[in-house]
Amino acid sequence: MKAIHLLTLAFLTIACAAFQPNHDHTEGYQIGDVATDFKLKNIDGKMVSMSDYEEAKGFIVIFTCNHCPFSVMYEDRIIELDQQFKEQGYPVLAINPNDDKAYPEDSFDNMIVRAEEKGFTFPYLHDETQEIAHQYGATKTPHVFLLQKENKELIVKYIGAIDDSTRGRDIEEKYVEMAIQQIIEGKDVDPATTKAVGCSIKWKKH
Question: Given strand 143-150, what is the order of strands in its sheet?
Answer without folding.
Answer: 34-35, 153-160, 143-150, 58-63, 92-96, 124-126, 40-42, 47-48
